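Input for the complex:
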Amino acid sequence: MAADPERIREVVNRYVELVGSGTSEEIVALYAEGATVEDPVGSEVLSDRDGIRAFYAGLDGLEKDTRLVTVRIAGGAAAFHFEVGTHVGEQTYTVTPIDVMTFDDDGLITSMKAFWGDADMVSA
Amino acid sequence: MAADPERIREVVNRYVELVGSGTSEEIVALYAEGATVEDPVGSEVLSDRDGIRAFYAGLDGLEKDTRLVTVRIAGGAAAFHFEVGTHVGEQTYTVTPIDVMTFDDDGLITSMKAFWGDADMVSA
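Predicted:
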């Protein structure tokens, strides 16, 4: 029994919101024990909680805003397109990944893969 | 050695174009031997060429148009959002999936997963 689509939608919305204005601890709490993170796809797969925490801790303290562009949910999994803008002084660096997540029955994230490349980051 | 990002981009563009106006044979030719298709995610995974051919043959003869909305390429894989409009009489049924594909070194598709649900189809 996969998580309910509406539950998955809530978790995706919450994830995008927390990447914008939450703490790494709050983000890590959305992940199941034993979850994996591959961001971007092709980089090292993080499979332990400390590694995942350290990955998101890199975002702590940065001024960011995020926006969910669109989400598709099927078979207990989600693919979603979102934007992350990071503000550094006068500059804003915007990256717009497509993330794919799987979930356990409780709606905790069991895997995340982020599809983006250098070409998908712009600064203005 | 994964396929080159530019090669992957070409194949994704060609795939979307062929879903719109190609034949099932032309689409199947983009797939590697042993490729898998899961469309939508959560449905039966097709893992033989005849099954994949039969899946796309269901589209033959329908009047369709397609549009690639956006594509992200990373680690020899792609995630892309596209639209398929199918015209039946006065009606147009539009479905807007996010597909995830992996590729072999030659840029042939080794797997396809399509993320969409009933909520992502509209008729007008």
